[in-house]
Amino acid sequence: MDKPKREAILDLAKYVNERIRVKFTGGREVTGVLKGYDQLLNLVLDEVQENLQGLPEGQPTTRNLGLVVLRGPTITLLSPVDGYEEIANLTNSQHQ
């Protein structure tokens, strides 16, 4: 007896050749152009920039990585860059 085929929760096909933002366990974050993916959510991104956090003021906040392969099990969040707007962290401003 064949099991029914599962449908993907996330349809990445519509984001191929589009810029996406990816966050990982541990807090690292990158943006890049989605070039490919597989059923385990491993991603291939090009023109990747890592957003660096916790650096002293005056240091670069991004670094260019080029073409990378991202392991699916380490990804915690995926979002398109278009339509994305970063807002201030309200919890930090309330404690100052």
TrEMBL record:
Nucleotide-binding found in the keyword field: no
GO cellular component, alphabetical, reads: catalytic step 2 spliceosome; Lsm1-7-Pat1 complex; spliceosomal tri-snRNP complex; U12-type spliceosomal complex; U2-type prespliceosome; U6 snRNP
- Gene Ontology biological process terms from the UniProt entry: mRNA splicing, via spliceosome; nuclear-transcribed mRNA catabolic process
Give the Pfam families listed for this entry: LSM
Q: Which GO terms describe its molecular function?
A: RNA binding
Recorded hits in InterPro entries, A to Z, give: Lsm7 (IPR017132), Lsm7/SmG-like (IPR044641), LSM_dom_sf (IPR010920), Sm (IPR047575), Sm_dom_euk/arc (IPR001163)
Sm domain: from which residue to which, for each copy?
A: 7-84
Sorted alphabetically, which keywords does the UniProt record give? mRNA processing, mRNA splicing, Nucleus, Ribonucleoprotein, RNA-binding, Spliceosome
State its location(s). Answer: Nucleus
Family the entry assigns: Belongs to the snRNP Sm proteins family.
Q: PANTHER family in the record, alphabetically?
A: SMALL NUCLEAR RIBONUCLEOPROTEIN (PTHR10553), U6 SNRNA-ASSOCIATED SM-LIKE PROTEIN LSM7 (PTHR10553:SF5)
Q: Which protein is depicted?
A: LSM-domain-containing protein
* Species of origin: Dichomitus squalens (strain LYAD-421) (Western red white-rot fungus)
Q: What is the lineage of its organism?
A: Eukaryota, Fungi, Dikarya, Basidiomycota, Agaricomycotina
